[in-house]
Design brief:
There is one protein chain. By secondary structure, this protein is of the alpha+beta class. It has 2 domains: about 220 residues, Cathepsin B, Chain A, CATH 3.90.70; about 30 residues, no CATH class. It contains 5 helices and 13 strands. The strands form 4 sheets. The protein has a 6-stranded mixed sheet with strand order 6-13-8-9-11-10, with helices on both faces. The chain has a 3-stranded antiparallel sheet with strand order 3-2-4, with no helix packed on it. The radius of gyration is 19 Å and the shape is globular. It starts with about 40 loop residues before the first helix and ends with a strand.
């Protein structure tokens, strides 16, 4: 995986349906908002599920796109499914979690395997489900990491399109120390993200770093004015624009930028 040269990004094209630099929000009708992850730490899987929903919804009549519908996918499914794949399919979860869909050929629907909350207890090997009366039990969305997939889940899968992704940027010096480095996103990176969203009509998944945490979101729209990054919906409604001011959102060398598309 290599960093792509930013010079590959054209500044404008008179043949484009939407003039480059203008507002682009054509993906909005295909977006389904995610559940609140609360304390689950599941943002990567929320964002990745949202990306697949967008790609699936692009092949679905608009009147059929609805919550609890046939394209409202289970975030918890992906959280558990990645661990059931092999490294050959998903070598790195941050950049390759989407390939779990290709591995299984589909996904569970939200109505069949919901993101939930429940009582858990901490152990030396992770969280386990427990009763509310158990010592040290607490109510948490971390319970979604516990694999509770039905025995026949593969028979319940909704087919998903085979997908691939373009890796726009990955820190070439990524290691256990560098993941906490903090930097500012430059204009060339913003420009490349906007170009990918607008020309491919597909979302861009981002992972960015701050001093004490990292977070994942999807970019699905771009605008020319205002700040460099403004968040609306918690999962799939990021708007990225170029700005004269330094970017508001700090990112670090854990940052990954991927463009999604149907293979």
């Amino acid at each position: 995986m290599t960093m792509l040269p930013m010079a590959m990004v054209p500044l404008s094209s008179s043949a484009d349906e939407v003039p480059y630099g203008a507002q682009f929000n054509l993906l909005d009708p295909y977006v389904l908002a995610s559940p609140n992850q609360y304390d689950a730490g599941s943002c990567l899987f929320m964002a990745t599920t949202g990306a697949m929903e967008i790609l699936l919804n692009q092949h679905t009549p608009l009147e059929e796109i609805e919550y609890e519908g046939d394209t409202d996918l289970s975030e918890r499914f992906l959280m558990n499914a990645v661990d059931r794949t092999t490294r050959a399919w998903v070598p790195r979860s941050t950049t390759d979690a989407l390939f779990a869909y290709n591995f299984f050929g589909g996904a569970l629907l939200n109505r069949d395997y919901r993101f939930t909350a429940g009582y858990v207890c901490d152990t030396s090997t992770g969280v386990v489900a427990c009763d509310s009366s158990d010592e040290d039990a607490y109510f948490s969305c971390a319970i979604n990491w516990i694999d509770d997939l039905p025995e026949n889940f593969e028979e319940m899968l909704v087919p998903t399109p085979e997908v691939d992704r373009t890796l726009i940027f990955l820190d070439p010096n990524l290691n256990e120390n560098s993941i906490w480095n903090v930097a500012l996103m430059d204009d060339d990176t913003v420009e490349r993200i906007r170009w990918e969203v607008r020309t491919k009509r597909a979302p861009v998944l981002i992972i960015y770093n701050h001093y004490l945490y990292w977070h994942s979101d999807l970019v699905v729209a771009s605008t020319i004015p205002a700040w460099s990054a403004t968040a609306g919906w918690c999962r799939t409604r990021w708007s990225i624009s170029r700005s004269r001011e330094p970017p508001v959102t700090s990112i670090g060398s854990r940052s990954t930028w991927m463009s999604w598309a149907v293979a």
